[in-house]
Amino acid sequence: MFGSAALDVAIGLVLVFLLFSLVVSKINETATSLLSTRHAGLRKGLEALLGDGSDNSVLSADTVLGHALVTPIQAAAKSNLGTRVRNMFGRAQGISYLPGRTFSAAVLDLLAPAAAADPGGPAVAPGDPMQRALDAVSGLSPTNPARAPLMRMLADAQGDRERFRQTLEHWFDDTMDRVSGWYKRYVQRVILVVSIVLVASLNVDAVNIAQVLWRVPTERAAVATAAAAHVTAGRNPGQTADQQVQAITALKLPIGWTPPHAAAAPSIDPRHAPIGVAAWLIKLLGLALTVLALSLGAPFWFDALSKLGSLRQSGPKPTTTAHP
């Protein structure tokens, strides 16, 4: 009995962590999308490679993002609501991902256009493209960060266009790996801030929730049933943030704040603000545990819930009778 009750309490806590992690994740995804954070990271990486265009060079982050091979991807990223919100915050709208193959093709075309337009006749491709690329790179400003690495790449390629293109792709992919690391750290900070605000404002106290689940068998059973339903729904149930909040509310757990205690008759409602230093320390511990749990992310808690649900369904190991 003790083992079953403890398991149900753990399942209840994990379900709460999962639901709130999903809410935090959706808030983060919406904010980063509307503020075009991924695009800002991509532009930051391109500027580190090619410069910001302040030297009016033929090769820069702006010329690559504005290239004919990239603009169709830019057009696909447009969103009317996103555009309005980004304009409010002064953020540029744009793509969040650029394939390495597209980057290398755009750079090659900027350095050595495949054909030169002739108003009086057909298009003509003047000279060796690798030589034209070398001439274009030699003409870059000495302050352009791309000049030195591109000169080395051209020297290593020894006139082989395909080898040069592959080196460009590796150069771009290495930089994007660093940008991805920056983006992950940024998202972790955002998730932490959102978790703190959400947990503090809604009083999501892991200690309080565990105590209520332990003391109230009916609530414990209801939460365990809800947990089983979420496991059945799968990793991506497709719910909105509002639907997740409704699912949390339906659990009827001690979440949220209630009015202060009456001075003459303090309440035992766990949603009240604590009275005394010791009670506040326990409250802060419960809130901190929830914040740390949410920082692990929804996939972690879904996997944990699936494993605990399987353990609960399997039940205790049957006893065996000893044979002489």
Notes on the structure:
With about 325 residues, the protein is mainly α. About 65% of the residues lie in helices and about 0% in strands. The chain has two domains: about 1-30 and about 190-315, no CATH class; about 35-180, no CATH class. It has helices at about 1-35, 35-50, 60-65, 70-75, 80-90, 100-110, 130-140, 145-155, 160-200, 205-215, 215-235, 240-250, 275-295, 300-315. It contains 14 helices and no strands. The protein starts with a helix and ends in a 10-residue tail after the last helix.
Radius of gyration computed on alpha carbons: 29 Å
**In one word, what is the shape?**
elongated
Average pLDDT: 80
Helix content: 55-70%
Measured by DSSP, the beta-strand proportion falls in under 5%
How far apart lie the N and C ends? Answer: 31 Å
What structural class do helix, strand and pairing data support? Answer: mainly alpha
| Strands, total number | 0
> What is the H/E order?
HHHHHHHHHHHHHH
Major sheet: size, sense and barrel closure? Answer: none
Number of domains: 2
Number of helices: 14
Runs with pLDDT <50, length 5+? 117-124
